[in-house]
Write a structure and sequence with these properties.
Blueprint: E1 8-11, E2 28-31, E3 41-42, E4 45-48, E5 50-57, H1 58-62, E6 68-75, E7 82-88, E8 91-96, E9 104-110, E10 119-124, E11 127-132, E12 139-143, E13 155-157, E14 161-163, E15 171-174, E16 180-184, E17 197-200, E18 208-212, E19 219-224, E20 236-241, E21 246-250, E22 258-263, E23 271-276, E24 282-287, H2 290-294, E25 299-304, E26 312-318, E27 328-331, E28 334-338, E29 344-348, E30 358-363, E31 377-381, E32 389-393, E33 397-403
Parallel strand pairs: 9-13
Antiparallel strand pairs: 1-2, 3-4, 4-30, 5-33, 6-7, 7-8, 8-9, 10-11, 11-12, 12-14, 15-16, 16-17, 17-18, 19-20, 20-21, 21-22, 23-24, 24-25, 25-26, 27-28, 28-29, 29-30, 31-32, 32-33
Amino acid sequence: MFKKLLLVVFIAAISCTKNDGFQPNGDVLSIIPLEKCENGFAGEYPCNDYDLLDYISLEEIGGIGTKGNDCWGWTDPLDNKEYALMGTNKGITFIDITNPTEVVILGTLATRTVNSSWRDVKVHNTVAYVVSEAADHGMQIFNLEKLRNVTNPPVVFESDYDYTGFGSAHNIVINKTKDYVYPVGTTRSGTYKGGPLFINIEDPANPIDEGGFINYSHDAQVVTYNGPDTEHQGKEILIGSNEVEVVIVDITDKSNPIKLSAISYSNVEYTHQGWFTEDFKYFILGDELDELRKGLNTRTIVFDFTDLDNPVHHFDYSGSSAAVDHNGYVKGNTYYLANYTAGVRMLDISNIENKTITEVGYFDTYPDNDMAAFNGVWNVYPYFPSGNIIVSDINSGFFVIRKSGS
């Protein structure tokens, strides 16, 4: 799609720490973006303050008939190299983005059973855990350390272990401070009716089923709580986005999960996914169907979770288009929203206490329109130490973007 003319210059890191630069050896990689955001566009893509560093089409990733879905990232603790995990209907593709203007497809871990539009992946330490709504898919467990030694990419990877204690799952959740994974949205006919499962992964090659919680969750976040509610500090708390409400559960004791509270909101259509602010005071939620069914502009719903036993609705933020919101994540004072046809929207939440959210940037990978439809961005991952951000687009493929001038 693009003709690349790149200038790559290595300069010594004088004022930066090791993790501030791109390179694992401590040097800074100074780059010219593939497409700089100028006059509202980066090439053909509408943008505001975010440049395009690199792009890979779906056909390059998986051939004809490939559709994008989830993405996640891994920073190798050994050398700080950065890797993207790009989900498609066919599997998970691993991409080295350490040099973000010359990304390299290392290889693909194919689906266990059949292709599926729904595939999700999370990372714990040096291991990736992959689930899908493909029938009988279970959970693929993949040692990411194998990415260090790929000499002739792309290669075909195999999982290190396949866990078959459940069939399909809509998503998988990980609390990075604990050795557990939590598949959600599994079959409703099972013991837990699609609620989160508790799987001990202290030994990734020997996952242990430790139960679950009976309450269907489409998505969830699990944290070791360190917020303002002193009664629950240090406990492991699950916040489930459960179709018609948000449910807060203490899962510290896996054999005895305790529902603390639940809250719904006006014009509920499909309670999809949410994320805590870093101080654990507010929870930011997206309803996936309210734009489509209610004719609303993108609506972001904010709850005050100061008291986990008594959550309250704080306020709603409305975006500038009718695009459907999908997944959102908090990093610092920025909420990164995968907004389907409107691309990725960057929202300043520094004044959220005073019921104010302000859009401060965007990168639109789907320039055709901003309609309420399920095209465009599925996910965004903003957690690489370098500042690189990866984006998975259902229709277009894989993007690496970065804040202009950073």
